[in-house]
Design goal:
38% helix, 7 helices, alpha/beta, two-stranded parallel sheet, TIM Barrel, 6-stranded parallel β-sheet, 12 strands
Length: 266
């Protein structure tokens, strides 16, 4: 066979096996998976981080203090950051839009309907200050509490894009790097799924060369939105097993790679 034909066949092989896809942005792997944990719950420190650390996996923790427990967690969060986990901004008081079905938990003082844009900007900046005091870092990502991106008609993060590399929303989607909106990154909210179901999402990301973001709240309890310890462990062990194909890293690192990719592939 002629050398040029051999090269063509080789390139076709690489392409069809996902190696020469534009998603090479995923650190040379087939896809990226980001594990995110919301609210800074105690179970993050008790259940999630020990399992992650035992496997050498790094995650993103969106911290808030609506339950008034952050002061007792400071040393543990500092240790987590030193060990490579991302501490990220989820506001201080976790304000959400109340007055609609499923939002009965929203109190008047933390109802976005009662916020101004300037108020939430101050709250978000204050949370960045708190996080910097914990880990000494300045680069962050953000997650919208309850997935709410607006106060009335205003997208409140517009004036803060210089403060964050990216922001995570709640839309269930897996996208290639060129399609991702860095200030509303999609994710899959986990509540009661089995390990098999979580692993299936990973397999879909591998097959489609996309970004998959998991959103966890409770891990073995402490929150109404919960994943069992067994399912969580099964997912993490599968990710470790697939690390030659899957880039598992905090959202800050993935978003930085996406930003660079998008800037050079306009």
């Amino acid at each position: 066979m002629h050398k040029s034909m051999l090269f063509f066949v080789f390139c076709l092989f690489l392409f069809t096996n996902g190696i020469a896809q534009p998603s090479s942005v995923w650190n040379g792997k087939k896809c990226a998976v980001v594990l995110t944990y919301d609210d800074g719950l105690n179970v993050d420190l008790i259940n999630a981080i020990p399992t992650l650390d035992s496997l050498g996996l790094k995650a993103t923790f969106y911290i808030s203090d609506y339950f008034d427990g952050l002061h007792e967690q400071l040393l543990e969060w500092r240790k987590a950051a030193t060990n490579g986990h991302e501490l990220a901004n989820h506001t201080i008081w976790h304000p959400c839009e109340g007055g609609r079905a499923g939002r009965e938990f929203v109190q008047p003082e933390t109802d976005l309907n009662n916020y101004s844009v300037s108020r939430i900007i101050k709250e978000i900046k204050s949370m960045n200050t708190i996080l910097k005091a914990i880990d000494g870092k300045t680069k962050r990502t953000f997650a919208y509490p309850c997935g709410d991106t607006k106060i009335h008609d205003t997208t409140y993060l517009d004036g803060l894009k210089n403060e964050f590399i990216a922001a995570r929303g709640v839309k269930s989607e897996m996208l290639t790097a060129d399609k991702i909106d860095l200030y509303n990154i999609g994710c899959f909210m986990i509540n009661g799924q089995t390990g098999e179901q979580l692993i299936s999402l990973v397999d879909q990301a591998i097959a489609s060369n996309t970004l998959l973001v998991f959103l966890f709240h409770g891990v073995g309890g402490e929150h109404g939105l919960n994943v069992s310890l067994t399912a969580h462990s099964e997912l993490l062990h599968y990710l470790k097993k697939q690390e030659k194909e899957v880039w598992v890293t905090p959202l800050l690192e993935v978003a930085t790679a996406i930003k660079s990719y998008q800037a050079t592939n306009k």
